[in-house]
Amino acid sequence: MTPRGNWRTTTPDRGERVLARKRRIGIIGSSRPSAEGSRLAEAVGRLLGEAGAVLICGGLGGIMEAAARGAAGVGGLTVGLLPGADAADANPHIALPLPTGLSYARNILVVRASQALIAIEGGYGTLSEIAFALQLGVPLIGLHTAYQDPKIRRAGSPEEAVSLALTAAGEAT
Prior knowledge:
Layout: H1 14-21, E1 24-29, H2 35-50, E2 54-57, H3 63-73, E3 78-82, E4 96-99, H4 106-113, E5 116-120, H5 124-136, E6 140-143, E7 152-155, H6 158-172
Helix pairs in contact: 2-3, 2-6, 4-5
């Protein structure tokens, strides 16, 4: 007989409990960012790593790579949900590359895997992630992005963006 409700039939070990408590913050943004966008993304990644959050992103270049570089530089965990089928496509700062083979459809996975998102700059791919977040009610923080919506919380600095995202993720847990 299969148990109903909670699938777990054993008590989780300490490692599983610790990982389950980590907040998962998604970083979305331009694959061809400005120098300022890259600087902001790296600072956001560093602050998330220092806070012990898991950084979720698309795993490739641009804003994703800059944020992952910042997090990895302070020992943070970085997860890349890749559009292709090859883990080797991940940027060098992704600790856990997850190839999806889904192309742009993987954007919904980035949103669903995150308890809050920080958008930095961005193009049409970022716009799709923003739309998914707004439709699904995933808290969204905008930092140096032109996209406007009353549901996007604006941040004026990496510190403010990370603080808003961590608070929102704590409420979403």
